[in-house]
Protein 1
Amino acid sequence: MTEEHMNNDPFEGALTQLNKAAKIIDFPDELLQILSTPQRQIEVSFPLKMDSGKIQLIHGYRIQHNNWRGPYKGGLRYHPDVNKSEVKALALWMTIKNVICDVPFGGGKGGLEIDPKNLSKKELEEMTRQFARSLAPNIGSELDVPAPDVNTNSLIMDWIADEYEKLRIENGGLKIDANKLKAVVTGKSIKNGGSEGREEATGMGGFFVLEELVNKMGLKKPLTVAIQGFGNVGSHLAKLLCDNGFEIMAISDSRGGVRSRTEKGFNIDLVKKCKLEKGFISECYCIGSVCDNPDDVKGDISNETILKLPVDILIPAAMEGVITGENAPDIKANIILEMANGPTTAEADEILEKNGIIVVPDVLANSGGVTVSYFEWLQNMNGEKWSLEKVNTQLKEKVVKAFEEVWKIKEEKKVSPRTATYVLALQRLKEAYTKVVQP
Ligand code: GLU
C-alpha cells in the first residue's frame, strides 16, 4: 500500500480502482492517462445575501470528467465537506456508472461547499439560482445535464431549470423547444417535466440488483440487513427490502440510529413515521414491537457501529469514505451493497476482498437514479410522458442487464465485482474513443 492510498484522498482512490482494472486488460496507457484527468474543471464563487443582510461567499465546482459517450451527466450536492478532490472522484465515478448502465452520457459532478440545513428557504433558492447562472454557459441538454445528489432535490432542480430558461430568453431567446430547455437538468418535479419514478429510482435499482445477486448466490430469505442512511436512497430501498423478505435489523441517519433487539426487523413504515415526528431516527425509542423489549434503549447505535453488525447484508447509503482500512476488518456482513457513492476506501476494498466479502460497487448498485434520469431526459427531448409502469419495467431491464454483464466478467476473469465493473467500463470507453473521438 503506497502513501497516497493510505491518505484516502477520494480522487486517488478512484484512480486506484481504474488502474487496477486497466492492468487486467492491458488497457492502453495513453487512454488511461486521458481518463485520469477530468476534461474540464469549473470552479465558481459568488456572494449570497443572507436574510440577516450579511454577505456570504459561496464556493463550488462542476467537474466535467468525460464526454466520449455523450453529454456530461451527474448530480449536484450541497454539503459542507464538498471539495475538489471529492467532486473529481464523483465525476469519474459518473463516467463509469453511465457506461455500465449503458446510457448515452459521459460523467460529471458538482457541488457547493455549504450546509443547506442552515439556510432559510429564501437563501436556498437564491443560492441555487446564482449557482445556475454561474454554470449556465457550461450546461445544457446536449452539453452537461445536472441532477439531484446529496442534499439536493426536485425543488432545487426546478429552480435551476427555471433560471436557465430565463437566462436563455434574456440572452436573445435562442429558439429552443421548451421541452428541450427543460432537459438541462433531470430529477425535476413531475409537474415541471420530471419523470414518474425518478425519486424512488436509485433505491429501486439497488433492490433489483440485490435480488439478482441473491438469486445468483442461491441465498435463502429471510436475509438480515443493516442500512446506514435514511435519505432519499436509504428510505426507499429499506421499504422495498422490508416488503420483500429482508429483515432490516438496524438503520441510521446522520445523527445515528436504532437496532432491533429482537429477531424480527423493523417495520419501515413505522420508522418513517417516527423520523417524521421526531426529526431523527436516534430520537425513536419505540418502533413497533421493538420497544417491548426491555433492553431497547433510545438511539442506541452509532454510524460506526452499524457497519460492524452481524448481518447478511450491509448497505452504506449515506456518504463516501465510511468503510476504511480501520473498520473493514470488523465487518461481518457477507455482502455490501454500495448505495452511497464511494463509501469504501481503496485500502478497505483490499481488506474486504481478502476476507471474501462480496462488494457490489456503487457504480452498479446505485445506477438506477441516473438510468431514470436518462428516461426523464429522453421524455423531455421527445416531448413524451411515460407511465410509472413503463419507467420501472425499463429500469429493471437496464440494471439487470448491467448486473449480468458485470457478473460474467467477474466469473471469467476471477476478479472482484468492482474490478469486473471497471473492466467492462474501460472496454466500452475504449470503443467510444476509437469510434467517436480518435483523430
Ligand atoms: N446523483 C445521482 C448519482 O450519483 C444521480 C445522477 C443523475 O441522475 O444524473 O448517480
Protein 2
Amino acid sequence: MKILVIGKGGREHALVWKLSQSRGVEKIYCAPGNAGIAQIAEIVPIPIDNLAALADFAADKKIDLTVVGPELPLTLGIVDIFEQKGLRIFGPDKAAAEIEGSKAFAKDFMQRYHIPTASSRIFSNHMDALDFVSTVSYPLVIKADGLAAGKGTIIVTSPEEAKASVVNIMVDKVFGQAGERLLVEEFLQGEEVTVMALTDGERVIPMVSAQDHKRIFDSDKGPNTGGMGAYAPTHVISDKMMKRITEEILEPTVSGLAEMGRLYKGVLYTGIIVTDRGPKVLEYNCRFGDPETQAVLPLLETDLVEIFSDIADGYLNIDEIKWKDQSCVCVVLASRGYPETHENGIVIEGLENIKGKDNFVFHAGTTRKDGKIVTNGGRVLGVTTTDHTLKGAIGKVYETIQQITFDGMQYRHDIGMRAVKIDSSYF
Ligand code: AMP
Ligand code: GLY
C-alpha cells in the first residue's frame, strides 16, 4: 500500500511514524513534511493548500490512501476533490469540516442538537456587540468567528477589555475576514481536556483522552499557543465520564451532522471543559490535535492503516480499538519568541543521542540545511515518552530533553505535572 500524508508538523510526524509500522505499507509520501518525517517517508514539495497538485500527485503515484493532518485543506474541500477523482482519502468533506471552519456554525449546531456548550451570542455588527458587552458580567470570552490561527479567542475580565477586543476584531480586522462575525461566550470553569473520536459518519469510537497545555509559560501563564505539550490518558476522564461524553457529545454530533446531510468521516476533535455541571464543548476541530496526537498515537495498539482505510471506505468495521495500559507525555521544544515570532535556521544539536524504545522525538518546525537539522518554525520538536505511570513518563521525558539543545530553545517544565500533583522541582 502507498500512503500520502499531508502536513508538516509534529502531528504528521507521529502519524507517519505510526502508519509506517502497519503491515502492508510499502511506501509513505508526505507533503510537504519536515526533516524528521524525511527519515521515514519521501518528502513531496507540494503546499497543503494546492489541492489540485496534491490530487494529481496521488493519481500519478497510484496512492492507495491519503491522510490529511491540518484543517486548511479539509475546510478547502480536499476530500471532495479526491473523492470526485476516485481517490481514497481519510478526513471529513468540506461541508462536514465546517464544524471547525466556522465557530458560529458550530454554536448553532450545538444549540440545535442540544449538545452541552457555553451559552453565547453571535454578532455581525460591532455596535450591537459593544452594547452587549457593557451589560453582562465578567469574565467572558470573545471569539472571532473564522479561522484565526488559534489566536482569535480572548478571555476578558472587564467591559473595557471586551470593548477593545470587539474593536480589534470587527473594526480594525486584526484577523481579517475571520472577524466579520464575533461570538461573546460564557466563561467555563473546569479542567480542559481533548477527546478525539474516530468515526465513519455513523459509528463513533473515542480515542484515549489527552490534555494539552496551551499557554506558553509554566503554571499556565502567558499567551495562548498552538499547544506546548500534552499527556494521555488524562486523570479527568474516567470510564464513566468518557461514556457520558460519548453519549452526550460525540454521538449526537456525528448523528446531527448526518441528519443535516453532512456525513462526517475521519477524526472528530472535541475540546471539552469538565465543569461541575458536566462536560461542555468548547470547540470542535475537524482533524487530529497537535500536540495531543503525539501523546495519543504511541499508546495505540490497533493497526492505524486498517482504521483509516475502513473510515475512508465509509464503514468502520473494527470491534474495538486497543490501547497500551501506559501513559505518554509529549513536551514541545519551541523557538525563542514563539508564539509571536521565531527565527529559522538554527542548528539543533543532540538528536543523535536520543535512544530507547520508549522515547520519540517528533519533528515539527525542522528542515535540513547544509546537511544539518535546523529550526524551521515556532514549535520545533515534540519530545515524547511512554512509561507504565504518568509520573515515570514525565521523569523520563525531561531527562531526554537534556540531550537536545538549540539557541533560544524554550519549553514548559510542568507538562502533565498538575495531574500527578508534583511540581517541576521534583525532577
Ligand atoms: P479556542 O480559540 O476556541 O480554541 O480557545 C482557546 C482557549 O481559550 C481554549 O483552549 C480555552 O482554554 C480557552 N477558552 C475558550 N473558550 C472558553 C470558555 N468559554 N470558557 C473558558 N475558557 C475558554
Ligand atoms: N492542540 C490544540 C489543537 O490541535 O487544536
